Each structure stands twice: as C-alpha cells, then as structure tokens.
Amino acid sequence: MAKNMQPIAKRCRTLGISPAVMGYSKKSSNRNPGGKMRRKKSEYSLQLTEKQKVKFIYGIMEKQFRAYYEKAEKAEGKTGAALLSIIESRLDNVVFRLGLAATRREARQLVNHGHFTVNGKKVNIPSYLVKVGDVIEVKEKSRSTTRFKSIADGETAAMAAPKWLQKDESLLGGKVIAAPQREDIDFPVEEHLIVELYSK
Q1: How far, CA to CA in Å, does 131 sit from each of 64, 85, 177?
Q2: What is the per-residue pLDDT across 146-200, written as a single tens digit (0 to 9) for each?
Q3: What is the Cα gyration radius of the chain?
Q4: Exposed/middle/buried for 184, CB within 10 Å: 0-12, 13-18, 19+?
C-alpha cells in the first residue's frame, strides 16, 4: 500500500494548513519564515494546492481521490461538497473523529490491524465508507491493549466529535447519526477549485 512519508510540519506549511488539523497540535515548522513573500500563484497552482491539501490531510492517493471525485459527480447537490462528504465518511477518518486515535495516520494503522468493527463485523479497510446508522466500536479483544485503555481513561476525551457522529459513554465507539455536511469540515478548503481542476 502506498504511503505518504512527507514530514508533517513542512508539508503543512507548504499547503498553508495548521498541523493541528492533522492531530499534531505540538508540531511546528520554522522553515521559510518569509513564505508570505512568494510570488503570486497561477490559477492552476491554486487548484492543485487545494487538491493536494485534501489528499494530504486524509492520506489519500491520487487514484482513490479521483474515484471519490467521479462518485461525487454523480451525487445530488454540489460536486465539491459531495466530494468532501464522501471523504469524511472514510472509516479511518471516523475513528479519528471519534477520538479513538490521536491522528488520522494512527487511525489508518489501527484500522489496518483489525481493531474495529462496523455493526459487529471486523473491518480492516481504512477507506471503507460508513453509512448513517452504522455503529463503529473497538473490537472486544483489543479493548485490553495499552492504547485503548489509555483512551478509556480519558486520554482523548477532549476531542469533540462532529455533530454527525455520536460517541458512546466509554469513548470506545460511536454511531453515525447523519451524513457529514460541508460545514462539518474543520479546515479551510475551497473545494470549487478542485472541481475546476478536474473539469478541465
């Protein structure tokens, strides 16, 4: 499986996003302190940057991102909003949003290792798209591990889930109570630029 191994802080600075969006609240970068002095970007460069930003935040490679876009094109409503909603519905993102992992990268690894169930069935595919009504939980055998014990003890309790997700009391699971909406995206993105890029 392809992985993006770029340094988090450096890449965040290049794309103009806060490392906190990635779950790295203590990371920062002092490189290129005069970054605001760069020459004006072309229209294509702006469009490409927006696409790279979303791909980087969610850890998605180009082929899969393109497939999400094509699915969004067929959906009702605005293509850009539909694209973000689809990506936000990925299981690894849901695990992160429920506070069951400190970062999306960690969530992806935990899902790959088979620590979660969806509606009682083990799912180890990070790109699995959840639906309204789905219940995501830490697998019973995994609850005794150090990682999930620390979560149960409140390590990630401060992570507030978006309104389309409902945490359970133990913080070891949750339910999808609605489809994610455009306003649920917690970082600045101009999705219309992505649509313009793919529409060429």
Answers
A1: 19, 11, 9
A2: 888 887 666 665 678 899 999 986 668 999 999 999 999 988 999 999 999 999 8
A3: 17
A4: middle
Give the pLDDT score at 6. Answer: 60
Query: For the stretch 144-174, what's the b/e string if a residue is b when 16 or more beta carbons lie within 10 angstroms of its beta carbon?
Result: eeebbeebbeeebeebeebebbebeeebbbb
For the segment 85-115, what is each residue's pLDDT rounded down to a tens digit? 999 999 999 999 999 998 999 999 999 999 9
Q: Are 66 and 47 in contact (CB under 8 A)?
A: no
Is 89 in contact with 179 (CB distance < 8 Å)? yes
Q: Can you tell me the distance from the alpha carbon of 105 to that of 91, in angstroms, rounded to the nearest whole number?
A: 12
Q: How far apart are CA 166 and CA 79, in angstroms?
A: 26
Q: Both tokens of residue 113? A: 């290792």
Structure tokens, 104: 């999306």
Would you put residue 18 in left (φ > 0), alpha (ψ -120 to 50) or beta?
beta
Of the CA atoms within 13 Å of residue 4, those in its CB half-sphere come to 19
Q: What would the two tokens of residue 7 be?
A: 């340094």
Nearest to 53 by CA among 199, 176, 157, 185: 185
